[in-house]
Design brief:
about 210 residues; alpha/beta; TIM Barrel; five-stranded parallel β-sheet; 5 strands; about 10% strand
Length: about 210
Amino acid sequence: MTDLATLLLNRPDGFPRLRGFDLAGNESACPAREVRDHLLPLMEKCLHITIHAGEDVDVSSIWEAVYHLNAERIGHGLTLMNNRELMKRVIDRNIAIEMCPSSNFQIVGYRDNYLPETGDHPIYPLKTYLDEGIKVTVNTDNPGISRTDFTHELHRAARLTPGGLSQWEILKIIRNGFKASFTDRNVRNRLLRAAETDIVQLIQEGFFP
């Protein structure tokens, strides 16, 4: 793994080949604590890390991703709401939760306001996380399989949220995406300021009520 990390991270011009490492797959097949030693070379290179956790298994999977693998972003994180103390720690550490509405609906099953037959399904936790102050982002997860894109994911997120999502909540989710980016801080801030400038202009033009 050390040689692999060196190969992946080093370029003659000094620019990193990778911005981050994403660990995904069957959570129950291999707990996060069992792969820590394998990821240490990447941690030693200070590579950003996102871990698939808490999609359809116990919240302990998220705890292990945070404490054993130093995750900066958690993919899905659906069971986080089952541990209030861990939720507070996620907020304190500014860890992002990458939610994937279409994939989560297909794999786990949540109430869709447009589908009456899903009325007895659990409520999607996205709005709860937003209200708690968690840095929630919306993502496509597997666009080829789910046949989706970012715009459709925002629409699906609104469908899965009781009462839908306001324009300001959608803007907050988009802003969280900029803030959770693994790019350099200066680049991230520059992109965020540019996006905010565009939004201010749209407000001034009356685009938002």
